[in-house]
Design brief:
alpha+beta; Jelly Rolls; 6-stranded antiparallel β-sheet; 5-stranded antiparallel β-sheet; 8 helices; 23% strand; binds 2-acetamido-2-deoxy-beta-D-glucopyranose; manganese; signal; Germin; Germin_Mn-BS; secreted
Length: 268
């Protein structure tokens, strides 16, 4: 019965799932829905479970590749789910969530489309290093370095303040940037032309932690206020409330100089 369920819908499911990444959620509100049927989450889950119960690679290949030479279950189609400004861009992911063949491997992959002035907002991947390659247009990549405030691995109460060093690079023509596991990074498109990238991850479940959204999700408000320096003139409960509803899930637009230069709508 499991096999029947898997067989009937699996190949169709992968294409749908490619567009159904969590990151695509916000983007889809700005564009017409893709011409796809209902998400096939149940079928994907059934296949994931079958693969997780398969102890060896030969067992997993017997599930995924039962009809040589047909390699369909080892292929994945990224959907170009480009969105319009002021949404800054979109990413399609291939991870264990939507490409079960990755179960038992240590890889995942992404394709991203970044609009003019688009910003892939500061984030980190808790379980994966990332190697991002720009394949179209131009992006600036930024990486905020790890800080070691105690000097010997200890948080010793010295409480240094001020910015942590950041490095950056302009990427085009297949130039790549390494974003190490767990380190905060971002990319933005400073030009008035679209850009796109591919990214490789060394974990089939890389994850994504949004810096601003995570920080402003802490409560009570006093925690955020104290962590941000404790100046109520700069940040109080009212401002926190206002900010919380505006922090984007993944992409934003550089609204000052860039959007004006390119004549883009700023969404507000
Ligand atoms: C893909 O995997 C499913 C689940 O095991 C299987 O039923 C189906 O035949 C496979 N598709 C191809 C083209 O081999
Ligand atoms: C992705 O789709 C958009 C909108 O249809 C199109 O303008 C763009 O050229 C496509 N990008 C690629 C790389 O195919
Ligand atoms: C890159 O960093 C330098 C400082 O190290 C800064 O002057 C420059 O503006 C940065 N470039 C971008 C595009 O952010």
């Amino acid at each position: 019965m499991l096999q029947n369920t898997l067989a009937s819908v699996f190949s169709a499911g992968l294409l749908v799932a490619a567009a159904a990444s969590p990151l695509a959620g916000r983007a889809s509100s700005a564009t017409p829905p893709l011409p796809v049927s209902t998400p096939l989450l149940e079928e994907i889950q059934a296949l994931q479970q079958a693969l997780l119960l398969a102890p060896s690679q030969a067992d997993r290949q017997a599930i995924l590749l039962p009809n040589p030479p047909d390699a369909s279950n080892y292929t994945f189609t990224f959907v170009n789910n480009t969105v319009l400004p002021p949404t800054g861009g979109t990413i399609a992911l291939a991870t264990v969530d939507n490409f079960p063949a990755l179960i038992g491997t240590k890889v995942a992959s992404a394709v991203g489309w970044v609009n003019p002035c688009g910003l892939n907002t500061p984030h980190l991947h808790p379980r994966a290093n990332e190697l991002l390659t720009v394949v179209q247009g131009e992006l600036i990549g930024g990486l905020i370095l790890e800080a070691n405030p105690g000097g010997a691995g200890n948080l010793n109460g010295m409480n240094p303040t001020g910015p942590i060093p950041q490095v950056n690079a302009t990427l085009s023509n297949f130039r790549s940037f390494l974003f190490p596991q767990g380190e905060v990074h971002f990319q933005f498109n400073p030009t008035c032309e679209p850009a796109s990238f591919t990214a490789a991850f060394d974990n089939s479940d890389p994850g994504r932690t949004q810096i601003a959204r995570n920080f402003f999700s802490a409560f009570p408000d006093d925690v955020i206020i104290a962590a941000a320096g404790g100046d109520l003139e700069l940040l109080d409960a009212t401002r926190i409330d206002q900010l919380r509803d505006k922090i984007p899930a993944a992409f934003a637009e550089l609204i000052d100089s860039c959007a004006k230069k390119c004549g883009l709508p700023t969404g507000s």
